[in-house]
Amino acid sequence: MTDSASETAQAVADAIDSEETIDLLQEMVQIPSPYFEEHDCAEFVYEWLDERGLDPEYHHVSEPDITEYEGDNVIARIEGTDPDAPTVLLNGHIDTVKLVEAWEEDPCSGRIEDGKLYGQGACDMKGGVAGIMAAFAALAESDVEPRGDVLLTAVVDEEGPYGLGSDRLIRDGLLDEVDVAVVTEPGPILSQSEVENPALILGARGRFLYDVTVTGLAAHGSQPEKGTNAVVDAGRVAEALDELPVDSHPLLGDGSVCPLLIEGGSQTLSVPESARVMADRHVVPGEDEATVREQAETAIADLDLDSDVEIDFRESPDPGIKYGPYVTDRDHPLVGAFEDATRSVAGVDPAVAYFSSVGDFNYFGDPDRADLPTLIVGPDGENIHSAGEFVYTDEVVEVARIVAEGTTRLVC
């Protein structure tokens, strides 16, 4: 960039008011929004954008078959002057996990103490959503005339079973003209390596969820030799899955398997006739659905069980809903713009790391889905998905400024 363009990008970042950004975050945290119950928070985001003349729209999300879910993403766009310039997606989810009962205070208090803001979803990821909202508003309200578009999407159901909000963005074609994606999930806390903010997360493992049905033969519990105990065989299946070979990737690390559930049997004095095993399978590039299925089939066949075993994956609304692994090239202009923005805002080079789990960013970065160069940059904290969750307030403001400057560098 020219010196004047860099100064323009810095000015957009500098316009972000730290107190207003934290006030915005606190208000969002004080609105309960467990997945599938995001309406009030979506309405708040819409009204906040609307009050600033940023022309938000609701984008309806419907999944009638499995979850019977109906909800709304909130989207807004800054239109650029050059149709050939890049379009940047700024994405965050407004839902949280279900409110955890172990909180010793109001789980949505938004209490601020010692530079930490507490509440369910404060770190994962309303802190990041506040950051992209503040960055989006700063660019929209500046004197900058961007060449490229900026698309803000505050989505529902990331924490739920299917990531329906971001999935619907892709299915409805809203990302067809997008060139790069920025997601403000908390990064360091779930990265493959120990890093601290400021950090740029440039890839993530993928995930499949085995759902295995084990069918034995019922018999009287006093004569177990006359039956085939599905619960016992399910335990053997779980152990076999736990020991599956996994691939390794130089950046994303190893794949992994974690048995999650064994259920079956209920009657006294009866050999269990059926059981179920579920197991988490995180994958790296090269491990696709066919590979993952074949590995399980081979391992279970080698057990030579008397039970019948049916290997499948978790039911989903569409076969295309899956979390594929991805890596964003270090040399991509998206990364360069955010490296420069981090140096400008934070005064240091950002750490570079890779995510250990999955999220909506997989839908964006997966070559089989949106296939976008995707970067995660978000404020960190502790206790995500549990009681005592908090986010560092200074990192919320820093991320907002990095996103504002990095985005401006890309579209101007």
Automatic annotation (TrEMBL):
Sorted UniProt keywords: Hydrolase, Metal-binding, Zinc
Pfam short name (any one): M20_dimer
Cofactor: Zn(2+)
GO molecular function, a single term: hydrolase activity
Domain Peptidase M20 dimerisation: 203-303
InterPro entries hit by this protein: ArgE/DapE_CS (IPR001261), Bact_exopeptidase_dim_dom (IPR036264), Peptidase_M20 (IPR002933), Peptidase_M20_dimer (IPR011650), Peptidase_M20A (IPR050072)
Coiled coil: none
Family per similarity comment: Belongs to the peptidase M20A family.
Protein name stated in the entry: M20 family metallopeptidase
